[in-house]
Design goal:
The protein is 79% helix and 0% strand. It has 126 residues and is an all-alpha fold. The radius of gyration is 19 Å and the shape is extended.
Amino acid sequence: MEIAAYQHWLEKYDKLRGWDRVSPSQTFVHLMEEMGEIARLVLHLEGYKPGEGHEDEIKVELAEELGDAATFLFKIAYQFGIDMEKAMKGNMPKAEGRYSVQEGQADMARYIRRQEENLARIKGEE
């Protein structure tokens, strides 16, 4: 599926139901609600919180919640007349120009060292 096709489908879907009249701020609140669901599932998958169900089941639920969140993100875009495909294509060179591969790898190495320090502190191994 192409991004633009999805965005057009969503706008039509909403218009037929009258949901296109929901304010962007309320759409944003729905997006935040979905982000909370995503956070809960990520915490389960990382082992921070006990999860109900098998890891594969939780991943299926995570995929559904990610889809829900994307829907609200796309809705905010159409509510303001923003073409998400263009926005995402425009983001690619921005991302590429932000960090070189070497800078990204150095940042990741620093991040891993910091996480190892955090884990050692948590385990009382400082």
